[in-house]
Structure formats: structure tokens, C-alpha cells
Amino acid sequence: MPTCRACGDRAEQFLDLGRQPLSDAFLRPEEVATEFTYDLTVTCCQGCGMVQLGSEVPRERMFHSEYPFRTASSHRMTQHFRAVADRLVAHSSTADPFVVEVGCNDGTMLRRLAETGVRHLGVDASADAVRDATAAGVQAQCAFFELETARRIAAEHGRADVVYAANTMCHIPYLDSVLAGAAALLTDDGVLVFEDPSWEDVFRLASFDQIYDEHFYLFSATSVSALALRHGFRLVDVEHLDVHGGELRYTLARSGAREPGPAPAAQVARERALGLTDPDVLAGFAERVAAKRTALLDLLRSTRAQGRSVAGYAATAKSATVLNYCGIGPDLIPCVYDTTPEKQGRLTPGTHIPVLPFPDSPDDLPDTFVLFAWNHTAEVLDKESAFRADGGRWIRYVPDVEEV
Ligand code: TMP
Ligand code: ZN
Fold it and tell me: Which residues have a Cβ under 8 Å from the Cβ of 376 and sit 6 or more positions away?
């Protein structure tokens, strides 16, 4: 019986997405023969309600110097993080705050702080991403954030008023060490703020592609409250974010340091009403996921049977789960276009579809795009309005499988 990686209680498996590759391991052709795979299953803890993967991939396999994702690849996310930077500074109770970002990637958020002269430090496990951050004028160092790292930062730079992480905390199975690190690093009044895909949104949208090696946890206010309490913190605020397919931003303060607002209790009540940890409800979710696979395969096959050409729109990490779970290879989707140079010229993990730069000429676009970057729908549809006007169609699978 699997145990909860967060609290040690019993965890029940409710979803099996099969054998999967690493979602960001875009391959050179010569790497296909030695590709790493693992079993992607999902469990829910009967004690703390934490939704998590049934097995853990060693962190060095996922996060290393060649980690290809760059935050700045989305214009909308760049704007989002500029606003975050201003908020973090406004929230701080000191005149000269020190902000630490865990998983700073290319420094998109911290650039804003650097520009305005706010003391900051980024930490990231990818040397290449840290190099991009440093080149942009951001203070950053290459490391995995854990207790030892936090102690070292506190000794070298002093205590932090804010420890912030976006789309990073859910990547870290060993949360004990991270929370202990935050406790060691933060001032008495300091806050730990993190934002990650929300289990409620994944459940509502059946956006099962949010589940992959890097997303070890799918947090909820229920599970994060329990996590906070075990580490001397309290969840004092929670806020829904309309980015990356629906996220929650959690604010944790030391117990007794700040009075919780009304939002955490309201969110916990909503999660309880939906039954987000109820085994029958979870079984229903698994059935909806399986139905989506059938519907998507049917739609792709009928599109191809009509003689329409198809390509994938953006080689997202999430697309690995969809492609591998559904068994979609180059026969159904011959190529995927993506703007990231680090992904171009490589093959998608597991299904080995070529990743190419977007064609220069509209004449070379396919008849139909499969929208793998559905979490960036507004930005993409805005950018591709001419494709639609010229009769191009989109296939999407969130919230439902459909052609639009
Ligand atoms: P994400 O879903 O993990 O944020 O990854 C986004 C990927 O999508 C990244 O590889 C860049 C790519 N992308 C495009 O190719 N074109 C676009 O317009 C957008 C928004 C993203
Ligand atoms: Zn648990």
C-alpha cells in the first residue's frame, strides 16, 4: 500500500496513466534507444487529502542544466509575474524587503525586483536557466532548495521577508525539508507564498495532462492547510489564479504571526462539498479521463480520414501525458510546433513526434491544430486569429474534446 509522501498516512491509488517518459525530456534521435520511462499513477492520502503521484522520479533526472522550459516563452505569464513582483513587495511589512524565489527559472519574476532595486535571490536547479536569469541582471544561484540551502542563504544574505515559488513547490516530493527551510530562512513575520495547479481545477476540467513526472503533487487548500500545520505554519490566504489552467496561490505565515482571512476556510469547504478526496468521486474522475482518451482518438482519426492535415500547437510538458496515455504518435500528429529553441529539432518524449519551429509562411500551416498549450488559449487564439480566419480549425481536449 503506498504511503503519503507528505504525511506518511495511507494513500489510495485512483488513476493509472500507464508507462510514461519524462515530460520535458525532448530527445535527440540517438537518445531514443535509451529513453527513461516510469509508471504514472495517482493516489490520494486518506489522512491529509494530498493528491500525489504513486512513484517518484529522481530529481536530477528532471531538473538539470538542459531543462528546456523558459517562463518567458509566454507573454501573458511574463505580465503575470511582473504583477506578482509588485504585489510581493507591497505585501512586505519592511521598508527594505529581501525576497527569495525557489525555482526562479530565467528570472522572469525577479527581473522586476532587480529593476526596482529590491534585494532578492533566485534559486534554481537548472544551470542554463540560472545563466539566463543572471544575464538579465538577476541575483541567482544553481541549487535544489531544501533545509541546507535555506540555512546557507540565511547565513550569507540574512533572513527573508518573502519566500516565493511558482509552479515549483508541486515539483518537490520532499516538502518536509522545504518547509523546514522556509522556517529557517523567513523572518518571524515572513511569508511563504506559492502558486501551483489546483486539484479542484484539474478535477473540474478533467485536465489530466496536468499530471506528469514534474507535477508530483496536485495541491488543494485542504492538503496545504494540513501541511502548514505540521510545520508550524498556518494557511492565512488562498487566491484563485486564472493562469496555467487554474491555480491556487497559498500564503503561509508562522502560526500566530498573522490572522487568517476568510478565503482558506471557504476554499476548504468548497473542496469538501465537491468530495475531492472521496474514493467514489475519484473513481468517477478516472472514468472521465478514460472517456476523454476515446473521444480524442476518435476525433483525430476522423480528422485524418477526411484528409485534413494535423499538427500539434506547442510542445508543452503536459502534452507528454496526453500523447503517451492515448498512444498518439506521428501517424496521427506528424509534427508539433514550438517557439522554444531548446525543444526544436528534437522528438517528443515517448511518442517521438518531431518538434519544429513554426512555419514562416501561412501556406505551410496544417488544416487543424491540436491545442496542447490550452493553458495559454487566450494568448494563442489572439496570435493565431489569421489561421482561424483562413479556415483553420482547433482540436482541444480541455474542458471537453471538441473541434472549434
Ligand atoms: P507550458 O504549458 O508548460 O507553459 O509550456 C508552454 C510551451 O508552449 C513552451 O514550450 C512554449 C510553447 N508556446 C508556443 O510555442 N507558442 C505560444 O504561443 C505559447 C504561449 C507557448
Ligand atoms: Zn497525507
Answer: 74, 76, 77, 314
